[in-house]
Amino acid sequence: MYYLKSTLLAIALAMLSAGCTTPPREFGRDFSTAQFGSIVLGQTTRPELIALLGTPARETVNTYRKDMAGKELPSPLIVHDIEYWFSSNDPLKPPIEAALFGRRNLHVYTVADKVTGMHLNSSFKSDSTNFDTSKIGEIKKHESTMADVNSLFGAPSGTAIYPLAAEQGGRIMFYSFNRINLATNMNETKSMTIQIGGNQRVHDFNLREESEKRPVLQAPAQAPIIISIYIPASR
């Protein structure tokens, strides 16, 4: 009879464990960065982009009066901001650090129906956009080239061309990374924009770093789980 009681107790504990296990959570629709090589700035159209990456999570239409370098435009510019995003805590899709929640976010900008800029932000290990800000002092305005920037920080997580960039033949290089630290409940963001002139040298650059505490949401109390176990009396 002791064996029967032990077996029933083991079954009950297994049922409780299964009930308390949280399955992986995913939000948004996953998309592959491997397809980015097929996107050509100034050539790929909005319909071609959507055929490649699928229906976006969101699309907004904005009026720009300044380019992405902050320079006044000769006339307002209509820009479509097409956004894709995905987040997951699936252990098969790990972030670069165990305490982080995996997130991938892509913004694609179109002007006159042509892709003119895009940038990615990802904390997944497979395509992380993290970068080392300690090397920013090595950038020299009007001297450093795009190749120099790539050597310091790696390939940018995004780029934009004229008219989102200030000069024809120039471009803007984006480096951005956002982490939501589940251990500290902090939202940490760093972003760097580097303006490349028509002579392919750094015209200007800007680094921005922010950190803020995320609000704590209290989960509603759960009712206790009651499992009835029938154990026959010893005879």
Task: Describe the protein's topology.
Elements: H1 2-20, E1 26-28, H2 46-53, E2 58-66, E3 72-88, E4 102-111, E5 114-122, H3 146-153, E6 158-161, E7 171-181, E8 186-196, E9 202-213
Antiparallel strand pairs: 1-3, 2-3, 3-4, 4-5, 5-6, 6-7, 7-8, 8-9
Explain what you see:
Strands 1, 2, 3, 4, 5, 6, 7, 8 and 9 form a 9-stranded antiparallel β-sheet that branches. The N terminus is likely disordered. The protein has one domain. 23% of the residues are buried. The chain contains 3 helices and 9 strands. The chain is α+β, with helices and mostly antiparallel strands and 235 residues long. Helices cover 15% and strands 37% of the residues.
**Strand residue percentage:** 35-45%
Helix content percent band? 10-25%
Question: What integer is the average pLDDT?
Answer: 84
Head-to-tail CA distance between termini: 10 Å
Query: What is the number of strand segments?
Result: 9
How would you sum up the global shape?
globular
**Uncertain residue ranges:** 1-21
Radius of gyration over alpha carbons? Answer: 25 Å
Quick overview:
The protein is of the alpha+beta class and 235 residues long. The protein has helices spanning 2-20, 46-53, 146-153; strands at residues 26-28, 58-66, 72-88, 102-111, 114-122, 158-161, 171-181, 186-196, 202-213. Strands 1, 2, 3, 4, 5, 6, 7, 8 and 9 form a 9-stranded antiparallel β-sheet that branches.
